[in-house]
Amino acid sequence: MTAELKQKIDQAWLGTDFGKWCIALADGENEKADMLRQKMFDDGYLSILTLEDELAEKLSKLFQTESEVSEYLEMLDRENHNLGYILIRVELFFRVSKIMKNN
After folding, report:
1. Model confidence over 45-54: pLDDT tens digits?
2. Measuring CA to CA, how many Å separate 94 from each of 21, 41, 100?
3. What b/e readout covers 64-88, taking b as 16+ CB neighbours within 10 angstroms?
4. pTM
């Protein structure tokens, strides 16, 4: 995976409220995570799953292969193990792989 592709993927989701929420959870910043979750709810996302589905669709267009999804997750895990753990729990990138298989 190129640094450019990783940067595009990071920009596509880490700057979103969902991405910030994942980072806050990973960093143990529960108050910030709660605030972000409330903001997502106030913005009309009654379920995190709805937002995950939207992001997964967007992210699936950035990856060319499923192996890139795995490679990206491994890179994230090396950068921030706790964030890798959170991503496993929220299943965002599982959804990306599922979309890629169906297309």
Report:
1. 988 889 999 9
2. 18, 23, 10
3. eeeebbeebbeebeeeeeebbebbe
4. 0.84
